[in-house]
Each structure stands twice: as C-alpha cells, then as structure tokens.
Amino acid sequence: MPAPKNPFKQALAEGKRQIGCWMSFAEPSVAEIMGTCGFDWLVVDGEHAPNDIRSIRDQLTALAASPSHPVVRVPVGEDWIIKQVLDAGAQTVLVPIVESADQARQLVRACRYPPTGVRGVGATAARATRFGGVSEYIQTADQEICLLVQVENRAGMAALDEILTVEGVDGVFIGPADLSTDMGFQGNSAAPEVRAVIADAMTRIRAAGKAPGILGTNEEATQAYLEMGAQFLAVGLDVMLLTQTARALSARWKSA
C-alpha cells in the first residue's frame, strides 16, 4: 500500500484555487468543528498558537475524516520538527521566515527520505504509516509531501527569484504582517508600498510555476489578494471569528 495521495498538493499543481482558514486555538475539538465548515485547507499553527507535537497530532486525528486538508505550520524550519510533524501524519508543511534558496533546499531535504533527503526513517510505528499499515510508505511518501515556504521580510523578497528555482518547493506563502512590519509599516499590510510588493511577488511566484498563498484577515484584503492571483488563500482565523462575532453579539444586546 502506497502513501495516501495529497489532494491539496495535486490541486496546487493543477492551478486550482484553495480557500482555507487559520486555526489558533490548538484544540482538537475546534479543529473537528472547523473541519465541517467546507474549507479546502486548514492551518494547524505551530508558530504562534500554543501547540506542541501532541496537540498537532490530535488535531490531525480530529481532521482525519474531514474533506479539509490540514496544513501544519511548524514554529521554525528545523529538520527535527519537520520530521516529527511528518511522522505525526502531516502531508503539507508550511515553514515560516524563509530567506534564501539554500534554506529552501535544506527544507526540501528535511521533507524527503535518503538518499535525496535527511528525513529519519522511523515512521513504521507512527501515525503517518497508519502504525505500520502503509507498507510502501517509505518508497512513496516523498512525492506526496507538499512544502510551502513563507517569504515574509525584505531578505526573503530579495531572494525570492532564487527561492523559486528550488525543486521541491510547491508554494510560496507571503506573510503580510511580518513583511509590512519589516518594511517599517508596523503591521499595516494595507499600505500601498506593501501591497505593491505583495502583488509583484505573487506575479513572480505564478510565473515560476509555483503556487502563491497569503492570509487575508478582512474582506477588503481578501478581495485584493484574490485579484492579485492568490491560489491558496486563507480567509480568516478561528480565534478572530469567535471574538468578532461574540463582541458584536454582546454589543448588540447590551445597547438594546
């Protein structure tokens, strides 16, 4: 039995738009709820949410029956954490703060087994192989792993064209908050100067045959990113969905 097909990776390769949402509660029950909402993909955020490998595993388990594809954002682009989330069953990994082609190449190697990579061969007893049930996992896993790299500062943008030449990088995610702050706009990703850089980056990403992605946290930004050609687009965050709705509900009835 080979490794399961990665529908998200296939959709990106076919140029299909994928609409997703961020998950920052770090709770499997919330992930299970989000998995019923119809998103193409959902981010399990290991960078800014209070996740560890066990909570990441539990959210992957909660999403196993969902048509929404889980994307795990690791806290840092290190071989050890990429190995852990892959063994836990992730097939798509999002890595923050990628600033060079050399770094991107090492991330590709971290996602692949030897001799083309450095991923440790120890998944036989892990969730990725259905606890030893996927007999041909080692022979077939590499081709189903989807690697998304985040370019989110001036150094990354300066190296973007070189990063785009790296075989094994499936998509490039633009981090608008980090980028705008690094450009001196303190999180104001709507600044015209920032929007211009994002639009140019998306054009270059698509021209290189990679998938461009981004997160929009309000309707205006999301529409702007759609018009720029974002292919995998997150349109909200679970925490913001709750807080905004709850605060509006509270204000509505307290003012009645």
Task: Describe what this molecule looks like in 3D.
This protein has 256 residues and is α/β, with parallel strands linked by helices. 41% of the residues lie in helices and 16% in strands. The protein has an eight-stranded parallel barrel, surrounded by eight helices. Helix 2 runs parallel beside helix 3. It is globular. The termini are far apart.
Q: Give the H and E element order.
A: HEHEHEHEHHEHHEHHEHEH
How do the strands line up in the largest sheet? Answer: 1-2-3-4-5-6-7-8
Class of secondary structure makeup: alpha/beta
What are the segments in which pLDDT stays under 50 over at least 5 consecutive residues? none
What proportion of the residues is helical, as a percent range? 40-55%
Number of helices: 12
Mean pLDDT: 97
Largest sheet: 8 strands, parallel, barrel
Strand element count: 8
| Cα separation of the termini | 61 Å
Q: What does the radius of gyration come to? A: 18 Å
- The outline comes out as globular
Percentage of residues in DSSP E strands: 15-25%
Please render the helix and strand layout as text.
Blueprint: H1 7-13, E1 18-23, H2 28-34, E2 41-45, H3 53-62, E3 69-73, H4 79-87, E4 92-95, H5 101-110, H6 137-140, E5 146-151, H7 154-158, H8 160-163, E6 171-174, H9 176-182, H10 192-207, E7 211-215, H11 219-228, E8 232-237, H12 238-254
Parallel strand pairs: 1-2, 1-8, 2-3, 3-4, 4-5, 5-6, 6-7, 7-8
Helix pairs in contact: 2-3
